[in-house]
Amino acid sequence: KQEVTQIPAALSVPEGENLVLNCSFTDSAIYNLQWFRQDPGKGLTSLLLIQSSQREQTSGRLNASLDKSSGRSTLYIAASQPGDSATYLCAVCYNQGGKLIFGQGTELSVKP
Amino acid sequence: DGGITQSPKYLFRKEGQNVTLSCEQNLNHDAMYWYRQDPGQGLRLIYYSQIVNDFQKGDIAEGYSVSREKKESFPLTVTSAQKNPTAFYLCATRPGGTYSGANVLTFGAGSRLTVL
Question: How confident is the model over A44-68, as pLDDT tens digits?
């Protein structure tokens, strides 16, 4: 069964810390992996998409890495800010145009 | 102003009633999706449509129905057969094609349905 797991479910850090969010998937034959941000009561915003042939993607203070052999992806957030507080979800796609399989998300709180 | 519009934002339903959630997009995206989100859980796929006049069941289609008569619109009906419909419903679109951004999903703001 293809499953995506995110640990921890919640994380609280002081402002300025660098942090890592984890995503693991059971079937390593992925097509791509996406990271999303969700603010309370809102829709999802796409942050980064990593194709299966890529090792990492960067956007500003965000860096996502992909290790297919171990079935893992990490989202690194540098110099965290209170505005980064949100739930972060990863989702895996197994074929072109295929459906996404989502993890449960990590709720991040960055304290001033 | 391009994007996805979901309406209503909040909806209350009595047991036994059917309700329809609207999803309209002006992004000219080919594919459209409906997801359900429950507290502490990831998103689960209800239905999706790759092209007009065609749609497929997702993982939890029972008790739901959809139509795709126009490219811009993908309404979701929550029927009385859905036993636990209280949830947050999210509509998403995907451009289609094979270029690098073709698989990036864009989400609407969501509709929260509460059964009284």
Answer: 999 999 999 999 999 999 999 999 9
